[in-house]
Amino acid sequence: MTHVAPVGGTAVQDHVALAEIELCGDLIIAASAAHEDRLSLESIDEVLKVAEERDMVGR
């Protein structure tokens, strides 16, 4: 027997997973637009807004 999620608004959303998917999408877009073969660590940090997170934690 196969179990299927009920139809209509009862699906549980995993906000962490959705945020990770969005970040992966941002990285894919940045990589496809990059002129070099790979994104630099600085570019990855910029896409993922790592510096902004560090600034907020330090406050």
Describe the structure.
The protein is mostly helical and 59 residues long. It is 58% helix and 0% strand. It has three helices and no strands. The chain has helices at residues 15-33, 41-47, 50-57. The chain is flat. It starts with 14 loop residues before the first helix and ends with a helix.
Sketch the major β-sheet: none
Helical percent range? 55-70%
Strand content: under 5%
- Unreliable spans are none
Summary, kept brief:
The chain has 59 residues and is mostly helical. The protein contains 3 helices and no strands.
Characteristics:
mainly alpha; single chain; 59 residues; 58% helix
Mind sketching the topology for me?
Layout: H1 15-33, H2 41-47, H3 50-57
